[in-house]
Amino acid sequence: MALELSKISEMMQGKTLERDNVIKMYQMVQSASETEEKKNVMKHSVFFVGQLPLKSNRCVDIEATKRILNTTVPYGDLDEYMNYLLEGLATQTLLLKKENGEYEVNRKFENSIAKVKKIAHAYRLEKDEEYKEIMPKVKKMYQMGTKYYNSGSYEEAAACFMNTIEMAEYRMGYYSLALMHFEGKGVEKSDEKALYYARNALVRGAKIAEGLEEDILSRLEG
């Protein structure tokens, strides 16, 4: 790998799609006036585009982006922060807003964005490696939680699932807590919390959460 893993975390620091970073980026875009200042904002913002999920036509996958953003932004604020993110990047022409409402990556910046995508991928691999040693314990904890759940000991089950998240951001722990919040078993019944956990599971690769996400959204929007 061209980049040392120790440098990847440094490069990713402060460049992730988190609530505070999104609003900070938007504010910087709107207030930048000097040429040098605009260049710095542009460099910073390339990291945002590099972490956006894209469709095959190089347009931003809006629904997938909402999933990622909803892991740090409450559901009620999601549309507002999506607007900050997309409009801020479009203002800099990193993204081009099309007539049909889609946001397309500007070809002019594709090479820079491709490099960031490689960095983001390497960062995820670094995180996976970090959790590799502890994963057997995490899976045992998850199995224990499943046994508690099946026996009706829901509070104990929720505690186990939360432990798997705290230990290694385990995708199935997120999924199970999403289900429990959706059902109101052992935890507060909350569609917003259920969606938060379901989307955390999906972002981490748990496809099993797709159907649950649909059910939660249907209830939230219905």
Structural class: mainly alpha
Mean pLDDT: 91
Low-confidence stretches at least 5 residues in length (pLDDT < 50)? 1-5
The first-to-last residue Cα distance is 48 Å
Helix/strand order, N-terminal first: HHHHHEEHHHHHH
Structure notes:
By secondary structure, this protein is mainly alpha-helical. It has 11 helices and 2 strands. The protein has helices at residues 5-12, 19-31, 35-50, 62-69, 78-91, 110-132, 135-150, 154-168, 171-183, 191-203, 209-221, and strands spanning 95-97, 103-105. A two-stranded antiparallel ribbon has the order 1-2. The protein is elongated. The termini are far apart. Residues 1-5 have low confidence and may be disordered.
Descriptors for this entry?
mainly alpha; two-stranded antiparallel ribbon; disordered N terminus; 222 residues; elongated
Topology (elements, then pairings):
Layout: H1 5-12, H2 19-31, H3 35-50, H4 62-69, H5 78-91, E1 95-97, E2 103-105, H6 110-132, H7 135-150, H8 154-168, H9 171-183, H10 191-203, H11 209-221
Antiparallel strand pairs: 1-2
Helix pairs in contact: 1-6, 2-3, 2-5, 3-6, 7-8, 8-9, 9-10, 10-11
Give a short overview.
The chain is mostly helical and 222 residues long.
